[in-house]
Design goal:
Layout (H helix, E strand, L loop, with lengths): L3 E6 L2 H14 L4 E7 L7 H8 L10 E3 L13 E5 L2 H13 L9 E5 L9 H6 L5 E4 L2 H8 L11 E4 L20 E5 L8 H17 L4 E5 L16 H11 L8 E4 L3 H4 L4 E5 L4 H7 L4 E4 L19 E2 L1 H5 L8 H6 L8 H14 L7 H8 L3 H5 L5 H25 L1
Parallel strand pairs: 1-2, 1-4, 2-3, 4-5, 5-6, 6-7, 8-9, 8-11, 9-10, 11-12, 12-13
């Protein structure tokens, strides 16, 4: 009998992780993927992009609600919670509460969909009740291992795999020199300021003008107003229209905007530019010139700290002159381009076997931990992000008001 796994996802980037992860496991596993109904569910185009290049058919995608997640509804040995933190926490809670404490038959694992360095306590705590947490580089695994020292009691086992959409066995090919196309991959959260995003668009336009015949494309994860994993305050396609309307971009823009898969936009003559995006790893994996823009900082807030020491940091001036550098092998080895053996799949198969025979147990500390999860975590699984933020603001105001009243009466 094959080991079995159910992957649940809730947004575009996590659905891609879920599908490509199951695809890499191969036919020796019984595999099923389901999309949890939440406010960040992907569009049909995003679903098609997540399935592209795999052996899975998007028509086989199942849909479910968090209320349907329990031991009675899940026959699989493993649940791979490839979802945003609040959804993972709620899914874990529902499954664990419906299972026998000393004879649990469902193993719980999770992972993040791209660069997860440096490790964050917030991301870890959402997933702490699981049996295993999957990192995609040795640097990530070391950083997350420090999280296990902050709490007593149960901690998930840290496993090291590889991002499933990277195909290099080890080091990727050397980047080519023939750049005929620039692809800019936005990150929804950074840079956050409108003027910084405008500076990128203006520099991309200048790059096209300084290099006649060069094609410049902005590869969007979603168009303005469409759902994606993280809320984008200033979508690039909307900013582009505003810049044109104000005359700052010129009447005839050289920039093209595309959605769909990254692989459909990148070709063998492309180079990729981003501030912080997993797309940089996809680009390196294909042997394409790749640049991380450092003009706005290289730090945890910009989600690009991991690229420090990579030799692919650059500036908007470097972009305009097409000055790309090759990554260092030492950085590649520690960050996402390590060589894999069969140990990860073997460990996963052992975990599935333990679950199948009811040999898993749930720590009492974990049960207490999931019982006391804040209500705001559950609200995030059913309410749109803007609504949650309004409720949080009201809660802070009420708390501050209550504290002032206490001080005035003491």
């Amino acid at each position: 009998m094959n080991p079995s796994i159910l992957a649940i996802a809730d947004s575009d980037s996590y659905l891609k992780l879920a599908v490509t992860f199951l695809d890499r496991l191969g036919p020796s596993w019984d595999r099923r993927v389901a999309l949890v109904r939440t406010p960040v569910m992907p569009t049909e185009e995003q679903i098609a992009a997540a399935f592209s290049g795999t052996n899975f058919d998007p028509r086989d995608l199942q849909f479910l609600t968090l209320h349907q997640l329990n031991s009675a509804s899940i026959p699989e040995d493993i649940v791979f919670a490839a979802a945003t933190g609040p959804v993972v926490a709620e899914a874990y809670s529902r499954i664990l509460r419906s299972e026998p404490v000393n004879a649990r038959r469902t193993a719980l694992i999770s992972a993040l969909p791209g660069v997860a360095y440096p490790a964050t306590a917030k991301g870890w705590n959402y997933r702490r009740a699981g049996d295993a947490f999957i990192c995609h580089s040795h640097a990530e695994a070391r950083d997350f291992s420090f999280m296990t020292e902050d709490h007593e009691g149960h901690q998930p086992t840290i496993m090291v795999s590889k991002l499933p959409f990277l195909h290099s066995a080890g080091f990727p090919p050397e980047p080519h020199k023939d750049i005929q196309k620039i692809v800019f991959a936005p990150q929804a959260k950074v840079p956050g300021a409108r003027e910084e995003r405008e500076a990128i668009l203006l520099s991309l336009e200048q790059t096209a003008r300084l290099n006649p015949g060069l094609e410049v494309t902005v590869k969007l994860r979603a168009r303005a107003g469409e759902p994606q994993t993280h809320l984008e305050a200033f979508p690039y396609d909307q900013l582009h229209d505003d810049l044109q309307a104000s005359g700052r971009l010129g009447q005839h823009s050289h920039l093209r905007f595309e959605t769909g898969t990254m692989s459909s936009v990148l070709d063998r003559h492309s180079a990729l530019v981003t501030v912080s995006s997993t797309a940089a790893l996809e680009s390196l994996d294909r042997g394409l010139p790749t640049m991380i823009l450092a003009d706005f900082g290289v730090n945890e807030q910009m989600i690009n700290e991991v690229f420090r020491g990579s030799n692919i940091l650059g500036s908007l001036d470097d972009l305009e002159s097409l000055s790309f550098s090759a990554p260092t092998k030492a950085w590649l080895r520690e960050n996402y381009f390590h060589r894999m053996d069969g140990s990860f799949q073997e460990s996963l198969a052992i975990l599935a076997q333990q679950a199948h025979h009811g040999r898993l147990s749930t720590d009492a500390e974990v049960l207490a931990f999931i019982k006391n999860q804040p209500m705001r975590h559950r609200l995030r699984t059913v309410l749109p992000t803007p609504v949650v933020r309004v409720l949080q603001k009201i809660r802070r105001l009420l708390n501050n008001g209550g504290q002032k009243n206490l001080r005035s009466t003491s």
